[in-house]
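During the reporting period the student researcher (J.K.) took over the structure-prediction task from the postdoctoral fellow and processed the backlog of single-chain submissions. One of the processed entries is reproduced below for the supervisory committee.
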Amino acid sequence: MGAEHIFNKLKGRNPKILGQEDFFRVSVLLPLVEKDGETHVLFEVRASHMRRQPNEVCFPGGKLDKNDQSEMHCAIRETTEELGIQEQDITDVIPLDYLVSAFGTIIYPFVGFIDDLTKLRPNPDEVGNVFTVPLSYLQQTEPDRYKINFEVKPEDGFPFNLIVGGENYNWQTRHVDELFYTYEGNVIWGLTARILTHFLELTEKE
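J.K. obtained the following structure tokens:
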């Protein structure tokens, strides 16, 4: 195969994350609402009977499926299903930076506005309850930070003889900052806290 044929074959392609098809892909919405004349961020508490992460604080969202037209469509669809509202109740949806987690998940976050809190009818199959936090409180609050260190642990039978340094190879280990916000007994942490912090940093720059 000649170089010209290779370049013609690759010309015009749009890059994606290598191995993306093997990742668990989800979209979430960071909902802004008006409450008592002030902008708030709305959070969900996952239902206690959920198999994954019961009782944890999160944003509305879920896995992309084959019928979703886009990552944004998925975020809106999941929000309507979980909060019992209509698509037209969600406006001004804007993408934030997507996040690739260390555990094989790609998260596509969006921010949007829900115009009427009284329309919410949370789905008890997925949502235990919802609460809001004033945006001003979050902007003025520095999250607590703790480090999580990752350790490289090759499986039994790993071919150390094939790499320079063998068993003494200098693996480039890393850590991540785990962030925690607390508000009226609710703990916001994990990927939800990272997305929230990213959003707050973007609004602060503006």
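The committee noted the following: Residues 42 and 132 are 4 Å apart (CA to CA).
J.K. will present the remaining backlog at the next meeting.
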